[in-house]
């Protein structure tokens, strides 16, 4: 036999054996499509729309199935019952965070979003407590959001009713709210540092949602040898972290332990209190990563939702008109909207729920892992196995939301016009890994959108029937298409 042929056959046999060992070794993983050597099931996944691929596979293999991306198994949970059972009913066992290789390289699994074990629990606990003390969900944070909403209106007035792309302006407002919490001060919208930060955050979301990055995450060895947008992502993350480290140093030089000004000050005070414990949680590095998480997640998710919201309000002017009627009736024109108004505005609240349901911002959420060997249904999932939860399958469940592919605020209204709450509403995920900033995000969406609609009429540049709301990227996040509109003073 030719030596080359023999070598090829030998390598192929070893690869097939390794796949068989993964499938038949420790644990009883759910069935799924047969993986190929080295690449696994990557050819059966549309990296431009992973969620759609998971839906198609669930029709064949059911609500719980296994995929192999490369040589690594991933258990997929599809549908409300499977997602709820895992994340809520036995949430502790499914509370691990799987590392995303493209991010792990820069963030080293610190902070809130990508940490695990004691580091995650302690950092999350401290962050929630600190944000609450600074008023997250209370009056003081509401004042900051209202102030930023007024600044947003003034920036929109400067467009003089001319066509504009709202991407930048809608990113500035939530970013400034986070800046006021983390760094104490908000930025002027034309501040050079602020412009750089905004550009990098926007670019990172575009890159993370690209098909190329999905490939890099599954085959991380490529990132060391091939050029591509992942290099820009690494550079941007490094820049943002170094910027935060610079801010931390400035805070240390002016710190007053009796008068903490913001999140960084509170963390530095805790660091001093814990200096003899030699814990991994209270370090400069973990502070930088935690601030990065608050800064990045708290800016881009809200700004993308706002951008998508305005696009939907342009496409459905009858919905916009009803919201503005409710604003006029409950709030009027001469005071700022407040969170107390929300309970008296069921239609507006239903529209906000439907926007988040329809846009399906994070289709597969962030990957989990199981923290121990878990018996789940008829399977035994080994500790450390990656878990994907399809939020699309929950937010677009046909039984809970009739015509789920249609934008319809009626999905969240009962027969009397009151808000109808649904356990299927999981845009922030669910369970122990639920988004830390959920209450802040809900507040921002309500106050920013009602303030905009209180002061402006939205004018589309094309016939609303021609507006396409299909996302241009649907990997990590659903990114809306670019568009322009006019803000006509009311």
Automatic annotation (TrEMBL):
Q: Which cofactor does it need?
A: heme
Q: How does it sit in the membrane?
A: Peripheral membrane protein
Tell me the keywords, alphabetical order: Endoplasmic reticulum, Heme, Iron, Membrane, Metal-binding, Microsome, Monooxygenase, Oxidoreductase, Signal
Tell me the Gene3D superfamilies matching this sequence. Answer: Cytochrome P450 (1.10.630.10)
> Could you say which residues form the signal peptide?
1-27
Enzyme Commission number(s): 1.14.14.1
Q: What is this protein called?
A: unspecific monooxygenase
The organism named in the record is Sciurus vulgaris (Eurasian red squirrel)
